[in-house]
Amino acid sequence: MNKKSIRDIDVKGKVVFTRVDFNVPLKDGVITDDTRIRAALPTIKFLAENGAKVLLASHLGRPNGEVVEELRLNAPAKRLADLLGKEVKKVDEAYGANVKAEIDAMTDGDILVLENVRFYPGETKNDPELAKEFAALADIFVNDAFGAAHRAHASTTGIAHEIPAVAGFLMEKELEVLGKAMENPERPFTAIIGGAKVKDKIGVIENLLDKVDNLIIGGGLAYTFAKARGLEIGKSLLEADKQELALSFLKKAEEKGVNFLQPVDAVVADGFGEDVPRKVVPITEIPSDWEALDIGPKTVELYSKVIAESKLVIWNGPMGVFELNAFANGTKGVAQALADSDAYSIIGGGDSAAAAEKFNLADQMSHISTGGGASLEFIEGKVLPGVEALDNK
Ligand SMILES: Nc1ncnc2c1ncn2[C@@H]1O[C@H](COP(=O)(O)OP(=O)(O)O)[C@@H](O)[C@H]1O
Ligand SMILES: O=C(OP(=O)(O)O)[C@H](O)COP(=O)(O)O
Description:
The chain is α/β, with parallel strands linked by helices and 393 residues long. It folds into two domains: 6-170, Phosphoglycerate kinase, N-terminal domain (Rossmann fold), CATH 3.40.50.1260; 179-380, Rossmann fold (3-Layer(aba) Sandwich), CATH 3.40.50. Helix content is 34%, strand content 17%. It is built from 13 helices and 17 strands. The strands form four sheets. Strands 5-6-4-1-7-8 form a six-stranded parallel sheet. β2 (26-27) and β3 form a beta hairpin. α6 (198-208) runs parallel beside α12. The mean pLDDT is 96. Bound molecules: adenosine-5'-diphosphate and 1,3-bisphosphoglyceric acid (X15). The site of 1,3-bisphosphoglyceric acid has 11 residues, from loops. It comes from Brochothrix campestris FSL F6-1037.
């Protein structure tokens, strides 16, 4: 990496504005997965142990520039204190006189969690005034928020133009692992794209077609392709205005000699839930009033064979509604194939990682990235603004 990291600077006695990605899933105010907090611990510990005054800044959810009580950073701050076994203070603002007073009261090695940066409208607009307010708090900026590195926001890029800016250990590790895999990808190189964020993910496919040998489609994404090919998809997930695009990808794949794999069968359901009527049908026979909620067993077999022959696999997005056991087999089958293969396996995206956890296969994957969108954009070959803004070596 040609960017400076916290290894390259002296932090003793310095106030360090550290951007982390504490955007963790919450249910009724309780953190259901603290992976991202644990992933930031090496940087936080390093800074504290080396005598920095550590400010931690993060977004949580998408509060759209307003204070949303449930999205305060209190729960992540509390979890961090538990994980560190050390006092962690939290303030209810992210800049200004009150925050400055708290900083003045800190001693070297103390940790202070700031409020959700997305409570301020300037954050996502990358407002230079807000960036200056953040910068005014600190001597150094550390970006360890790989999961938000594809966002050009005030706390990820704006501040980096104001004070010395370096990468944290998590940022460094993610870039190193993903960079190594993509530099000279081992082949066959396979990408598996699924999930429900059809709009977000469909654009990624175009760039991936320039890189991969096999592109596997699953999850809700598959049915826009099926519909575009003229198949009946019933009530399955559809992004109607993306059908032309889907067809153009199929054409591009053919021109490039990329093996584009789509489901050959599906588990369809009459309703949504564990106990609704369901059956396996060929992809050409989805009943007009049923919904496809998982890939079928023949598809799992087909995909597993391709995975077994691959040397590098990136996986983003589950193959079906894996949260319900009735529709989990497709995702489980693909995860198992990945676990069994010798391929270097990279998983990105909260739900895919959660699926690997659910099936107890997470520790058999080569790398589980803390960033879904960020890892996809990196693999596409895009420059991540949060990285670009850091100081060069
Ligand atoms: N066939 C399908 N129809 C509807 N939803 C689906 C289907 N397949 C997968 N999903 C849903 O997609 C969600 C995950 O999508 P997404 O957020 O895009 O993935 P990730 O977080 O891994 O990037 C899961 O909650 C899952 O239930
Ligand atoms: O959860 C995140 O993204 P991801 O679901 O793509 O991994 C990051 O925290 C970025 O959040 P954002 O997509 O609201 O900017």
